[in-house]
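User: Please run a holo structure prediction.
Assistant: Happy to. Please share the sequence and the ligand.
User: Here you go; the ligand is fe (ii) ion.
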Amino acid sequence: MKDFVAQYPVDTNLKPEITAFFDADSNTISYVVKDPSSTACAVIDSVMDIDYAAGRISSDHADKIIAYIEDTGLTLEWLIETHVHADHLSAAPYIQQKLGGKIGIGEQITMVQETFGKIFNEGTEFQRDGSQFDALFKDGDTYQIGNMTAVALHTPGHTPACMTHVVGDAGFVGDTLFMPDGGSARADFPGGDAGELYDSIQKVLALPDETRLFMCHDYGPNGRDIEWETTVAEEKAHNIHVGGGKTKEEFVAFRTQRDAQLAMPRLIIPSLQVNMRAGEMPPADDQGDVFFKVPINKL
Ligand SMILES: [Fe+2]
């Protein structure tokens, strides 16, 4: 595994400047990742607010990120989605409209679109080729944020399209890992796989020990304050689901048993319909109105 990761162009001497934006409604952390040697930045996993009970969308969280980028004079080059989130709506197209930048996700998005295109009975007008996104990454692909080279690692298991993005000494793990006392994310969504998740976690943990890891979610287990940053060394030693040398068999048995008890995320139905479209709403009807579908007994 070490050799496998050694082939990626990971440079821990490069230290991007990272600003976190916590969304308390979905417990999501969005990041602005800035190149220290230029004004270039990327936004990772942005959030569009939704009051699902009222069917109302708002942009408070995304507006904070936009204001930060504008106020500090940054140039937005990328809007990265670590995966198709099931617990919040992406604000990528909303931010893109104001600030530019390209929206990127893992190429296995096509599998996710295939699965949920069926579940939501989308017609043939819903393309399942990832064409809603500006860039589709495969394992080991690199891209530039100013003078920084970022690398996308395919880390499936939570979903088939999950990627961990490594920029210098910083890794953005999406839902591949939680903080050490949070463990790992569920692997029971369609296309998820606990064994694959274990292998993906090992891939992340094969990065240099000092690599800073940034979570997509934190729920403050056992009453602690919300946190989102740890290191590979900390996760290896202390992660409650995989740390201290837990075997794949132990992990799969635990994860499978735990996942069977979990309820669906509160916002999974609107989230999937938006996020599989790169953050765009479903197409409006002939009156210009937009609706979500609720598939019965399909999830
Ligand atoms: Fe997720």
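The two ends are 35 Å apart (CA to CA).
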